[in-house]
Specification:
single chain; 2 domains; two-stranded antiparallel sheet; 14 helices
Length: 326
Amino acid sequence: MGNLIKVLTRDIDNNGGNFFLDFENAQPSQSETAVWEEVNQVLTEARVILDDLQTYRGAGEEIRQAIQSPGVERVQEKAWSSVVPLVAKLKTFYEFSQKLESSLLRLLVVLTCSGSTPTQHLEQKQALARQFAHILHFTLRFDELKMTNPAIQNDFSYYRRTISRMRINNLSGDAGSEVNNELANRMSLFYASSTPMLKTLSDATSKFVSDNPDVPIENTTDCLSTMACVCKVMLETPEYRSRFTSEETVLFCLRVMVGVIILYDHVHPAGAFVKTSNIDMKGCIRVLKEQPPSGVEGLLNALRYTTKHLNDEATSKQIRSMLQTN
């Protein structure tokens, strides 16, 4: 039956979400291998990035002591030596966002090219669709971790203030060599966002559409809406949800669903929340709310605060009500 299995009997091309996509086991065909291997290198690094972010503790105590004792050289040096390796990590995270963007664009080229419907692309390129899903899963997980770790912005702000002070006093030496001023500005913009990875992918997807006028926008939006529908169907259909070998796959599916909704909302001119949207937003929100609250509150917040069109007049009161915080 393959990894992509039709789950309802209606016309599949008119009902893009009515099949099961095996997020756990889909393997690349020969025609997918070149792109798959390229993207797989980035996804392998993504696991390391998440581990590093999860264990990121920050230099809050050292910074606090340095601010309280501005004239004590030993305290200043301790704070500086604590912050510099942390900023090197933040630089790695930022540079990885650019690699992730390139991988997303690589997959979009393949999954939106003309000649096949979104469903056919997913059926014929299941392993690449799985990688697309993994990019979205990583993105939402990274942003969840970043959002709950204020040390990241505190450390970077202290680093920039200290570098500025060193330059004024002509003491910089090679202190700023890890992050030059131009890179520091770009990193500041990146970390200023509450969801920096999601913003990177949203901007990249919008740019992909504008930079490729020969590719109809529907190719991209239909790919995204189809993926959202796939996730919703798998999550709300016990027979197919039971095929997941791990509960973690449920959360994976939820993150992917939310990720593609947000991308769709940024790319489609009318967004994801209008009645004419190809995404069943009420159904997707309902599926989210049926999960344990601790696992999905961050995802509901992503829909509330990182989408583009939720507060448009065209959004129904019922959808707004469903997304209201308790």
